[in-house]
Amino acid sequence: xxxxxxxxxxxxxxxxxxxxxxxxxxxxxxxxxxxxxxxxxxxxxxxxxxxxxxxxxxxxxxxxxxxxxxxxxxxxxxxxxxxxxxxxxxxxxxxxxxxxxxxxxxxxxxxxxxxxxxxxxxxxxxxxxxxxxxxxxxxxxxxxxxxxxxxxxxxxxxxxxxxxxxxxxxxxxxxxxxxxxxxxxxxxxxxxxxxxxxxxxxxxxxxxxxxxxxxx
Length: 216
What we know:
CATH architecture: 3-Layer(aba) Sandwich
Number of strands: 6
Distance between the termini: 27 Å
CATH superfamily: Phosphoglycerate mutase-like
Strand content: 15-25%
Shape: globular
Radius of gyration: 16 Å
Helix content: 25-40%
């Protein structure tokens, strides 16, 4: 089974450097609709049996727009546990402000997950996100046959945690391959009960130089 993980298109809050999290949300930028059309071209020769998405509008809109651009009848299922981290009091706040207010928390979230104090921000732990997201993906695998190609649309931090956990990466090393960019494609293969990484954070089809606000 081939699994293609897509991070949603870039949003207004992404551009403004704000945390969105599992409760916050902001609209996709106009340029993101173009980026999604380029992703559709990248996937045009890939048979897609089913698409799954987080319920948050930025992910759901990305999935719906991708299906429209592919111009195929692809079933879309919304899966609650594919949503982004609950970031508690960080949601809607600027990265720069929080880096000044709670530098240790922000540094740990981005670089040292085992030191992340999720209680301090009244949020969700890496362990909890790994548990719920990998359970969701394994359920998706169970619902599809072994030759299926599925697309999963989710969020930057949740996807990094989800994918690395599926690959057997420990929480301490979750960030080892870096982050994921908006409208990026990460490809895993599931075979004989194991997930194998084929391609991490593919973005070449976007035909642009990525900015720091594109990746988390």
